[in-house]
Design brief:
100 residues; mainly alpha; 39% helix; globular
Length: 100
């Protein structure tokens, strides 16, 4: 399954970025089944009255070249699918903005 995933992702990225782009050929992938995991069952973040206002920004802060995406890192659309999608775009834009 991971080899077919890598092949599909490489094909998509090659079309989107060009085949010669350094990010067009990932070397590994990890598949998550969070929607069917017995311990999570598709969980999402929860904000309570004592959650610091800076929590989402803190979660979104890169740690070196490790980037964080997901609905919990969105400043206004946490707990939503579109928040998760937008943070993926945010981090993709960050990567594309990096200079070697």
């Amino acid at each position: 399954p991971n080899s077919s995933l890598l092949s599909s992702v490489s094909s998509f990225l090659s079309d989107y970025l060009t085949p010669s782009h350094p990010l067009a050929h990932p070397i590994s992938a990890t598949v998550s089944t969070w929607g069917t995991e017995n311990t999570t069952l598709g969980s999402y973040s929860y904000v309570n009255p004592t959650t610091p206002r800076t929590a989402h920004a803190s979660l979104a802060s890169p740690v070196g070249k490790v980037l964080w995406a997901g609905e919990a890192t969105h400043s206004t659309h946490f707990q939503t699918v579109h928040g998760a999608i937008e943070t993926g775009w945010r981090e993709a834009e960050r990567i594309l903005g990096w200079k070697n």
